[in-house]
C-alpha cells in the first residue's frame, strides 16, 4: 500500500518545474523529499493534492488513480496536506480550526446541522471528541478556545497539522512542518511524526532541515531543477557528489 508518483511532470510555459519524477510513499513510513529552493518540491505536493494539473505522468493512492481527480475525491482517497505558508482562520478558535478538517467524514447535511437534528448533534459531538483527542496528542488542549491567530508560529503550525489529521488520512504531506520552530518544538514533533507513521500513516516530509529529515526518514528523495538527482538511505544520499553539488553555496548546505 503506497502513494505512487510515476513519471510526474509539470511545465509552467517554458519552466520545467517537475520532470519524470518517480516517488513512492509507503504506508507506515516517513519518506523525505529535499532539494534546494525552487527545486520543485511544493509543485509535487500541489499536483498530488489536485491544486495543480499535471503535465504528464500518474498519481496513484493504493489502487486508485487520482491523477486528474478533483480535490474532494483526493481527500476521500485518504490524502491530506499542510501548507508551507500557514492557512488558518485567525479569528476562529483552535477547536473550530480543527473541526473544519472533519468534512471528509461528515454524513449529515448542512441543513440537518442547522436544524440541530439528533443525528447531526451526535456527529458534532463525535467530531468534537476526536478534535479534543488530537489537541491532547499535540499538547494543546488548554488552547482549544483560544483564537488561532493569537498563537505562536509553532502552535499555528500544529493547528494546521491537527486539521489535516482530522480527516483521518492514510497519507499526509507535510510541507516544511518545522519551519520557524525551536529545537524543543521540533523534537516534540519528531516524536509525534514517528507515532503517526507507527500507527500506519504514510508521511511525505518536505523539509529544509536536513538533520531533522535524516533523523526521521529511512528513505529520502532529492530534487534539483525539477529532476530527482538521488534517492536512498539519508547517509548515502547526503554524501552523494550530485547532492553535495546541488547544495554547495546554498543556504541549507
Ligand atoms: N505557478 C507557477 N508559475 C510559474 N512558475 C512556477 C509556478 N509555481 C512554481 N513555479 C516555478 O517552478 C519551480 C519550482 O518551484 P517550487 O515552489 O515547486 O519549488 P520548491 O522546491 O518548493 O522551492 P522552496 O523550497 O523555495 O519552497 C521554480 O522555478 C518556480 O519558480
UniProtKB/TrEMBL annotation:
Domain ABC transporter: 3-250
PANTHER family, sorted: AMINO ACID ABC TRANSPORTER ATP-BINDING PROTEIN, CONSERVED COMPONENT OF ABC TRANSPORTER FOR NATURAL AMINO ACIDS-RELATED
Gene3D superfamilies: P-loop containing nucleotide triphosphate hydrolases (3.40.50.300)
Gene Ontology CC: plasma membrane
SMART domains associated with the record: AAA (SM00382)
Superkingdom as given in the UniProt entry: Bacteria
Spans traversing the lipid bilayer: none
Pfam name, any one: ABC_tran
GO terms, molecular function: ATP binding; ATP hydrolysis activity; L-isoleucine transmembrane transporter activity; L-phenylalanine transmembrane transporter activity; L-valine transmembrane transporter activity
Name of the protein this chain belongs to: ABC transporter ATP-binding protein
Keywords recorded for this protein, A-Z: ATP-binding, Nucleotide-binding, Transport
Tagged with keyword Nucleotide-binding: yes
Amino acid at each position: 500500500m503506497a502513494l505512487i508518483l510515476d513519471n510526474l511532470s509539470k511545465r509552467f510555459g517554458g519552466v520545467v518545474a517537475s520532470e519524470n519524477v518517480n516517488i513512492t510513499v509507503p504506508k507506515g513510513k516517513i519518506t523525505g523529499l529535499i532539494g534546494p529552493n525552487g527545486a520543485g518540491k511544493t509543485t509535487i505536493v500541489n499536483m498530488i493534492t489536485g491544486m495543480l494539473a499535471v503535465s504528464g505522468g500518474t498519481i496513484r493512492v493504493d489502487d486508485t488513480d487520482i491523477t486528474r481527480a478533483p480535490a474532494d475525491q483526493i481527500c476521500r482517497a485518504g490524502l491530506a496536506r499542510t501548507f508551507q505558508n500557514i492557512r488558518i482562520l485567525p479569528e476562529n478558535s483552535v477547536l473550530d480550526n480543527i473541526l473544519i478538517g472533519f468534512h471528509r467524514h461528515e454524513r449529515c447535511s448542512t441543513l440537518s446541522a442547522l436544524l440541530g437534528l439528533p443525528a447531526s448533534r451526535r456527529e458534532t459531538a463525535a467530531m468534537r471528541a476526536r478534535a479534543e483527542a488530537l489537541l491532547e496528542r499535540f499538547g494543546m488542549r488548554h488552547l482549544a478556545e483560544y483564537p488561532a491567530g493569537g498563537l505562536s508560529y509553532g502552535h499555528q503550525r500544529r493547528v494546521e497539522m491537527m486539521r489535516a489529521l482530522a480527516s483521518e488520512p492514510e497519507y499526509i504531506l507535510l510541507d516544511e512542518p518545522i519551519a520557524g520552530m525551536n529545537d524543543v518544538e521540533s523534537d516534540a514533533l519528531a516524536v509525534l511524526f514517528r507515532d503517526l507513521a507507527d500507527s500506519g500513516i504514510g508521511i511525505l516530509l518536505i523539509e529544509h532541515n536536513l538533520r531533522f529529515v535524516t533523523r526521521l526518514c529511512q528513505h529520502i528523495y532529492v530534487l534539483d531543477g525539477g529532476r530527482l538527482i538521488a534517492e536512498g538511505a539519508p547517509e548515502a544520499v547526503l554524501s552523494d557528489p550530485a547532492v553535495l553539488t546541488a547544495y554547495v553555496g546554498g543556504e541549507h548546505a
